[in-house]
Write a structure and sequence with these properties.
Layout (H helix, E strand, L loop, with lengths): L4 H26 L10 H7 L1 H20 L3 H18 L4 H21 L4
Length: 118
């Protein structure tokens, strides 16, 4: 494989972001009690733990999508939006979600780097 610096940067971002998503998604299924506190109360009142599990599936889907290298701009953009809402709804837990802010900006960088110029 002959990669240039830009391709290596994109690959690194895709793997790093996918790791964070896959870790969170799998961890939710293995230890839901550690994660349920991050589900906003109004969502828990409507959907209970189902919202947590749905989000876990969504995280795993996004992680696998990023690893697939298909339509990466859209995968990165949707992941950034997901992380934006996680941060907004958990702003009071910034000592934990500060990592999500970092991954959010990595998603923005990946989206910008993979945007089609048509």
């Amino acid at each position: 494989m002959d990669f240039n610096k830009n391709q290596l940067a994109i690959l690194s971002l895709r793997i790093g972001i996918a790791f964070a998503l896959l870790y969170a998604g799998i961890s939710i299924f293995l230890n839901p009690l550690a994660w349920i506190g991050f589900v906003p109360g109004f969502v828990r009142n409507i959907a209970g733990n189902n919202a947590l599990y749905a989000h876990a599936v969504f995280d795993i889907f996004l992680g696998l999508w990023l690893l697939s290298n298909q339509k990466t701009f859209y995968a990165a953009s949707l992941t950034a939006l997901n992380l934006f809402f996680i941060t907004i709804f958990n702003f009071s837990a910034m000592e934990i979600v500060f990592r999500d802010v970092t991954v959010f900006f990595a998603c923005i960088a990946l989206a910008l780097m993979t945007r089609d110029k048509k």
